[in-house]
Amino acid sequence: MAESHSTTYGLAHHFDDIEQQREAGTLGMWAFLITEILFFGGMFLAYILYRAKFGDAFAAASAHLDWRLGGANTAVLIISSLTMALAVYYAQVGDRKKLMLFLVLTMILGATFLGVKAYEYYHKYLDHLIPGFGFQWSGHGAPKQVEMFYFIYFAMTGIHALHMIVGLGIMTVILIMAKRGRFTPGYHSPVEISGLYWHFVDIVWIFLFPLLYLLGAHLHQ
Amino acid sequence: MNIEVQKQPPRTNYLNATYGIKSWLLTKDHKRIALLYLASVTFFFALGGLFAVGIRLELLTPQGDMMQAETYNRVFTMHGVAMVFFFLIPAIPATLGNFLVPLMIGAKDLAFPKLNLLSWYIYNVGALFTLIAIVTGGVDTGWTFYTPYSTTYSNGNVLLTGVGIFITGFSSILTGLNFIVTIHTMRAPGLTWFRLPLFIWSNYAASLIMILGTPVIAITVLLLAAERIAHVGIFDPALGGDPVLFQHLFWFYSHPAVYIMVLPAMGVISELIANMTRKNIFGYRFVAFSSMAIAVFGFLVWGHHLFVSTQSVYAGLVFSFLSYAVAVPSAVKVFNWTATLYKSSISYNTPILYGFGFIGFFIIGGMTGLFLAALGVDVHVHDTYFVVAHFHYIMVGGTIMGYLGGLHYWWPKITGRMYSEGWARFAALVIFVGFNLTFFPQFLMGYMGMPRRYYAYPEEFQVLNVMSSAGASILGVGYLIPLVYFAWSMRYGPRATENPWGAFGLEWRTSSPPPTENFLETPKVTWEAYEFRPREEAEVIDITRH
Fold first, then answer.
1. Cβ-defined contact of B232 to A41 (cutoff 8 Å)
2. How far is CA A3 from CA A7, A15, A19, B35, B509, in A?
């Protein structure tokens, strides 16, 4: 039955047809994203536990974060999700120029997010708020507990930023593939699957922003 | 009813398709990757075994005369780390599973061959970190890395070992991911879920645990490492952290991890029982669903490790109840296997001997697990040799029996050669005797109050400890014998036919060893699982012949 070798473009040798390959890739990415949820889940659990335990210190520490920068970054990521979705759409309809345009826009927005994040990290460094490396805290709340907040803050946003960097790498590969005209309306699952990853990383931030930035926003520093 | 001897001329198979070390190190063939894994896990089995020798030698006498307490701490820790993370967890899925999942479902390869190869490299990078940690002094925390042992009081290479385990975890995630996607999307035409071999069901269930549990241990170890670097206490009570949080996170993975070890072994046993009795397994669907039930319940019982760790009595009650609940699907399997054996015509060859061994060990290990899940009894025997004996009955008596039984059963398919049946039966017997002599006395000493992880003990325990050490040396010999005759068989063993056991299943419908693409033509499945019906056998063969 498989004698008639179809000249299906982009098909790996061990799949029967392009549809099977697409299903496998998509399911693989979803399964991977589930492992990611559990990976972040460990940190969310630690956050919940210590927020309940050290509520005041967490609110004070959170108030020290700049919610405007965090909010701007949230907007940047939401827009990048839109541009990513548009990139997938133009891959489906086979418009190479627009696909590339929206991939580049997505990458610019991703890089903007990382730039803002780096700026925030730098100011935390200037304020001696890096846990374990000369941490100093003179505001409200026990310094040890505030340090715990910043430990969790850096762990969560750091690992999130790492995912953003990986995402930028993936987008670079997809952009090069798009430039070489590798995607057709019949074969574009790499764009879709990378899009899933990108949206997931955005969604993680949607949870991180209120948990970390808005906790003590009502307390004016 | 046995299938006629293969009369095709010798042709290329996955072993001789290409030559050279590069063709192995860069292979994307799941069968070759399985063999690469086989080499790696065998190395760690031997390494873990060496540490076990150290433990049993020290415990021959009541005094600590061979090593110091600190050394002993390192030896039992490295035994646990090597065996659990680098042997038992990958043992069956990464070797037999890798080899058999595509063959059993009639696929050409796993869904992501490059990720499969990557997983082997990741395993080895993690292994390298751990080996460096061992060579430069080891770790003394116990394989569980409980805080504050692993934070305030440890003198060893917790960081290096932690990084090693963190990295190796990703090889497990990739394997699980690959299995799930492959089983979902790449089954041969006609191979519906309820026609799947039970080995596939159990590996599917184990894969779910791998992708859901492993990321949690990864982040836990990462936080532990960051905590050691930054001296901020997520887990360390001296720094304001909560050590019980570590125990919760650790066991959220590490209890289900026991099912990563034992579920694939259960799948092997289902195959052995069905094929050596030539019957469909009794209650196929119940056995299939019991694997899924074990995977689900397995995630809800971790608290039974914390009965004495300040967990509330109510949480303890719930976890105790749920731990009893997980015994139900386990018992379903055991009853269904024995019901399959009932009034069947059993071929008493080496694989089924391991199958019998598994059932016996699993019953003892499982029942003593119920003792431990009972709140009151657990307070009495917690952290004693009773616990050590219990989990060795499951992990060694269960997983390794399944692993060895499967290795013997599929050896002709993997290598295209038969092994020496006489020696193999002898080795199975030696292992059975050695295992029981090693671990049964540990139940007794544990119940009488001998704590685990001590290098010296009161004199009244010496007789039992000597028995245990004697058993360990017999067990060691039992493990060495297969190593010898398997090595011999690879070169001198008689050639195996396509289906030397007259077994059912797609993997037996291709040549031994299989060609690189597994099947010359994609098989079409028109039969139920284990449908041993002589009348239809001829028709079944016709379909897969070309």
1. no
2. 12, 14, 18, 30, 19
Whether A169 contacts A64, CB under 8 Å: no
d(CA B359, CA B510) in angstroms, rounded, equals 30
Find chain A residues with C-beta within 8 A of B181's C-beta.
24, 27-28, 31
Percent share of chain A, pLDDT over 70: 94
Distance from CA of B219 to the nearest CA of A (A): 6
Task: Sketch the domain layout of chain B as residue ranges.
Answer: 23-544
Q: What are phi and psi of B384, to 5 degrees?
A: -110, 180
pLDDT tens digits, B87-132? 999 999 999 999 999 999 999 999 999 999 999 999 999 999 999 9
Tokens of residue A78, six digits: 């939401």
Domain boundaries, chain A: 26-213
Cβ-based contacts of B117 with chain A (< 8 Å): none
> pLDDT tens, B242-289?
999 999 999 999 999 999 999 999 999 999 999 999 999 999 999 999
For A34, the token pair is 């589930």
Residue B495 has phi, psi (to 5 degrees) of -65, 140
Name the closest residue on chain B to residue A16, using Cα atoms: B186
Q: Tell me the one-letter amino acid at B384.
A: T
User: Could you say which of B108, B173, B223 has the minimum Cβ distance to residue A155?
Assistant: B223
**Rg of chain A on CA atoms, in Å:** 21
Q: Record the pTM.
A: 0.93
> pLDDT, tens digit, for every residue of B8-48?
445 789 998 889 999 999 999 999 999 999 999 999 999 99
Mutate one of A151, A154, A166 to test the B interface: name it (highest B CB count within 10 A). A151
Q: How far is A97 from chain B (nearest CA, A)?
A: 30
Give the up-direction half-sphere exposure of residue B86: CA atoms within 13 A in the CB hemisphere: 34
- Closest partner residue to A24 (CB to CB) among B181, B223, B229 is B181
CATH architecture of the domain with residue range B23-544 = Up-down Bundle (1.20)
- Architecture label for domain A26-213: Up-down Bundle (1.20)
ipTM: 0.90
Pair of tokens at residue B440: 């049964």
